Amino acid sequence: QVQLVESGGGLVQAGGSLRLSCAASGSIFSFNYMGWYRQAPGKQRELVAAITSAGTTDYADSVKGRFTISRDNAKTTVYLQMNSLKPEDTAVYYCNFRTIGRFYWGQGTQVIVSS
Question: How far apart are CA 100 and CA 65, in angstroms?
Answer without folding.
Answer: 30
